[in-house]
Structures are given as C-alpha cells and as structure tokens.
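Fig. S4 source data, part A: sequence.
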Amino acid sequence: MRNLLSILLLSLCYTAAFAQRTVRYDLYIAHGHMHHEMTINGGSPGPVLEFTEGDTALIYVHNQMGMETSVHWHGILLPNRYDGVSYLTTAPIKAGETHEYKFPVIQNGTYWYHSHTMLQEQSGLYGAIVIHKRKEQPQNEYTMLLSDYTHMNPHTVDRYLHNASDWFSVKKNSVQSYGEAIKAGKFGTKVTNEWKRMLAMDVSDVYYNHFMTNGKITDTLLQYKGGDKVKLRVVNGSSSTYFWLTYSGGKITVVANDGKDVAPVEVDRLIVGVAETYDVVVTIPEDMQYEFLATSEDRTNSTSVLLGSGMAMPADRLPRLRYFEGMKMMNGMMKMNGDMDDMGMNMSSQQMDMNTVMYPELDRKKKPAGNMDHMHSDMNMHMDKNKSDMGNMSNNDDLVTLNYSMLRATEKTTLPAGPIKELHFDLTGNMNRYVWTINNKTVSESDKILIKKGENVRIILYNNTMMRHPMHLHGHFFRVLNGQGDYSPLKHTLDIMPMERDTIEFAATESGDWFFHCHILYHMMSGMGRVFSYENSPVNPELPNPEKSYRKIEADDRQIHTMAEVGLESNGSDGTIQFANTRYRLQTEWRVGLNAENGYETESHFGRYLGRMQWLFPYIGWDFRYRREKQPEKNLFGQTNTRNKRGVLHAGLEYTLPMLITADASIDTDGKLRLQLSREDIPITRRLRFQFMANTDREYMAGFRYIWTNYLALSTHYDSDMGFGAGVTLRY
C-alpha cells in the first residue's frame, strides 16, 4: 500500500543566543499520487517535530500545491497570530507561498499539527510534535500517530454524509435492516427505532479503507527486550475515528493526557478520542514480540505497533459490535421530539459509557446487556459509588477501562481569582441531514462570544445528540471538573458522550479570536463550534480586513451539497437532483415516459428546514406535467384531477412522520389540493431497499433497489402513470 504522508526534515538549526535554542524546520506541502491527497514531501510520516521546553520554534511552511492551506499547532500555547486557523487567526498560505511561524516553546508534552483548511486534514496533512522537558532523563519512547485513510475524496465523503447515503453502513455491514432485525429477534426494536424517526444505530460515520500508525498498518520495534519499559506517545490524528488501545503484554500505565502529566493509573484499555493525546508506559514481559493494538471504535479494522522480537504475542481482537443492542438502548434514551432522556441521572467524565452494551467482550454479568431495567439499575448502582472508585460501566474485577474521573493532575490546577463568566452549551444536531450545532446554531448563525482578560470562563456542556463529540479549545488548556478538586486535570480536547454533562473552565489570559469546536472534521465543517473573542484586542497583522476574513469562516457551514439520482428503466426514466445546505434545499424531480401516453412531468421545491431535528420543511415551487388526454378523473377531494396536463406554481409543507415517512401537503395556483405520503430507502436487507409513494391525485409508485456499488443500483418499480419497469439507478 502506498503510504499517505511524508514529513522530510530538511533543516534543523540550533542557534545559541542567551542560552536559548532556536529550532528550525522547513515543511514542504504538495499533492500526493491521488488527486485528493496532500503530503508533506510525499510518503509516510518522517521525523516528529521535536523541541525542548524553552526553545524558540521557527517553522517555515512552503505551499507547493495549487490551492491555499494552513497549519494549526494543536495544543500549543502561542501568540494568536500563529495559531494557524485560516481567516480567523492566521493568513492562509496561498499557492506557491511560504509562511513563517515563530513562537517560544513554553510547555512540554505530546501534541500534533494539522491543516485547518477545509477537509485537508483528512487528505493527509498532519504530523506529531514532541516537546521534551528541560534536563529530561533519556528513556525508551516512541511516538504513535494514529490516522484513518479513505480512498474516497473527502469532499465526496462529506457529501455522502449530508445526503444520508448508507453506503458506508453497507461497507461496514452495519445497516441493521428489517431482515437482519427479524433474524436477530429484534423486529420490535427496529420498529421502535424508526417510530422515533431515527436512522440506524451507528458508532462511526465514515467507512475507512485503512487505519495506520505513522503511515503503516503495522509498525515494528525490534530493539526492545524482556523487562524494558517503553513510553508510547499516542496521538489520535484521525479525522473522525476513536481508537480503543489494548496491549498483549499486560497493563497500560497512563502518565499524561493532552500533553499534561497525570498521576500514573493502570488500566487494561482506554479509548482515545479524535485529537486527544495520551502518554502511556508498557512493559515488555519477556523476550517475545508484544502487540500494542489500536482498534477503531466501530471495530471495522485496526493498526498496531509490535514491541520486541521473538514469538508473536498478538493482542485479542475486539469482536463485532452488537448493533441491535445499541439500537434498543438508543430507543430508551431518545424522546419522541428528538431530545435525549438522561433518565434522571447526571452523567459526567465518561463514567457511564452508554455504548457499553454494544461491547460483547465486556459483558461478564449474568443479566442480559440489552435489558433497559438492567441498564437503569447498573447506572444507579455506579452513581451511588464514591467517584474515586467509579469507572466505566464496563469496569469490573477482570477489566479496568480508563475514564476521565481517574485522571488527576500532578500539580494544583486551580484558576486565579477573578470574575466567572458561565456559559451553557448544548451540543445539538441530527443524523438524518447531518447537521451539527451548539444550542441549535452553527458558527455562521451565532455571534462571537466576547470574553475579557482576567475572567474565568466556565462552560457547562451537555451532549444532546447520539454521537460522541471531542470538543477542542484553541490556545488554552481548560480544567475538567472531574471530582479531583484542586488537582482536576488540564486538557485541550474533551470527549463528551451522549447524555453526558461536563463542566470545564479556563482562565482568560490571551487576546484575539480563538476557535472552540468539535474535532470530528465533518462535524466541525457542518457548524459545531463557537469563536471566543477577547474584548479590546489589538489588530491582528495577519488579517488586515477581519470582517471580510470572518465571512470565510462562516462560509464553511454554509456549503451547498449536491445529490443526483437517475433511474434508467424499461418504462422510462425518473430521477432527482438536489442542492442543499444546513437549512435550505432546492430539489427537482422528473419522470419521462417512453411515449405520449406515459407523458412527462417535473416538480421542483425550494424551502427551509425548521426546528433542531428539521422535521418540518415549508416550500414553494412549480409543477409541470403532460400526457396524452384521457378521460378526466377526480382527485380524492372531488376536484378535477390535473394529472394529464398541468403548469402551476405551488406552496406546501413537508413533515417527517414516525417511521420516517414524509407527509407532503400542497396547494397550487389553480386551487388544487394534494396530500402525499412517501418514503425512500426502507432497508429490507443489507443491500435491498424498498420505496413507495401515494397521493390524493390517485398517483402511486412502489419499487425496489439493490445497491451494487456506491454509484450503481439494480432497480425495478411500478408507477401508476408509466407502468412496470426494470433497469438501473445511478446515484451521485
């Protein structure tokens, strides 16, 4: 497999000046072998950018691509102008240009860098940073940069997500069709799921071809012997994948998180969220080869590092998720209006992992994992325990899983005295249209949040969605109030699970604008973020026209996503083309028969989705149709049916009913009323879909599609005007 990314160290200079080093790197960004790839000197990742606390970093980024780019130094404390968010803190690096970043290194730990321009991070523009402590004793250590890789263009991935394509579920075998539900004895669970207007349970949105460690599926370190201890610096540089970390050689000792030291804690496994970093220590028990395994949360694949030499000691592979158990749990957590139901419990700090019932390797209890009464009693039991003893729902005598309540800073982290500015952020959105927001507003729909130097900003986060969200704050570390008091850990990225409520706080000590956002790339680009803006900040020399620049930031979540579907069957052609963004949709449908009796028609709608769940869609549009005159008919309202010939404007309202059925009521400029019920993509099996439509003009349609590839399906349907047909359907 051709490697994804290469970092070539072209020059590394040490300049002595008042006992301080200046450490220089030159990074050259170019296109890879595939049209959607971006590389730093084309190949697998090269040397990590390494510094020592007290250095001055001098980094030149040379853009050799035909488009603009940027580099954000993730978790690094530095002047605002060098933070690397194009148009918010730093000027974009235009094609052919070189940008200088120069800042003092005032911290230590494991960090990373990545593009903050569009979807370039998914294309391969990222790398690791290690900052050593002053006078640090040499030790065995290795940096693991975890990543996810797709052969698909990231813009196509983004478009598929927004158009509710289930191609990724087909590839992951996680469709959860009615046929599979019946086979598993979960038909009622599936019906309840769709009655609440939810799509199938999912854990990770995107299907990835490979997961990698430093650009390799498997990396091997042969130099270690029995008794050696190795510090692994783990960076989750993926775009949307969480990784479970396990080790075949025994316990994993966590010693740092997000670059900050924590009191060592021994666990059997931990999950590393998107954009988080962990420093862990493992021991090589004997002169054999042990596997440190990173498995994607959806269990589709893994990547690993092999430590030592000799007989292979592989880590246990994690089994397939129990999706229908997860769906049953999700049904109990979701109200009919789309809000989460926390069942009266105040969950925080990952102490109640709501996905636990989906992990069969953890089910060592006698009660069935999918039983909601079991879930309630289990959670209540854990909530009554002392926080120092609490763990993930999966914790028991045999297996210890890390959660945030176990993290304890090694030094006091209390904030300086100052006024408190308290903010409440509900993480909101819906999977059906892939809209992700804070308090039901995207970045472009909300104002900047003004803060003042000297304030302490407290944010109370509640995850009112069915997805995990790794929330990242630029330019600051925040305290996670996890029950450790003065020793609450410092982090820059917080993984917050469904129904969880967490409190974080930070001291406002900087100036300028700083981004706070979900670090799942496709969630961020959909609008889940806010901008903190320090009052009375000096003008940023990188952005001479800040108002114009900020409009570029707002444009990210206003992007228009295109979808087209064309059926070519023996009775004619029908199809749809759609242009949509977060709130608006323009859609045109057509049917063209083989003769004048079959006729033709086209209908278009333009409207705006209302509400957080976007179940309501008022629209205006036009409707043109013709077929050779037949005996006039009446519609179900007793009005003369105009299905033979019509040319009108109309206004209407679509509403998503339980079972994901779309109800459509409209009136046209001739005063004719029409009611219609329809649904597409009812999953019968993993690849077989059923669709239907019926309206008061006595028109109806029913048919099947068999998904062959992401672009092609075999299809057949019966249409009341065009009759029976069979052929293919092309989907873009």
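Fig. S4 source data, part B ends here. Residues 420-537 form a domain with the Immunoglobulin-like fold (CATH 2.60.40.420).
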